[in-house]
Model the fold of this input.
Amino acid sequence: MSTMLGKPRRSGRPTPEESARLDRYLLDVAGRLFIANGYAGTSMGQIARAAGASKQTIYHRHPSKEALFKAVITHLSASLLERDTQAALLDPLQALKDVCRMLLDFIMRENVIATYRMMIADGYRYPGLIDHAMDEIVAPFHGRITTLLTAAVAAGQIRGGTDNENTSRLLTGIMTGWPIQQRLLGREPLHDAAARAAFMEAAWSMFLRGVAD
Done:
């Protein structure tokens, strides 16, 4: 255990904190290998060796490679939308802008774009993995944006009478379409926080002109 967590652990049953720390460690190791080797090129044995763990330890937590990969995706997106919904609805338009900026920052992360590339390369052979990524990452963002659009209409902040489901998709495309394309091609279009902020303001202004009351 000292190989995995950097310090020896007392014998006996691990505490909940130690178990959670081990879970995060295994998911981080697995994520790095999936990114480096692709889904098809990564085995449970490779992950176990890289983590300094037994395959039994990994299979105890994740009964298959598919289950482990799905857990990696869930781990990647776990903290994205942990915001106070009631507070957000007091100013839904500002909350909507905050979510869009969070989404832009998220897709610029190296591990996120590397996972995106890997899913494009291998996903057509494993459609269940793509479905899981859509459910764990895309759907929560889409749902949150749609909810905030509806609240902004109710608050009189933007014009009503539009299909908020489609507006959500269009807004996401404005905010992330070009950055994702560039990142997938290996470019660094928004290389620092200032560049991302400038792009965000330009995209947000365009969106507001389209939905202004």
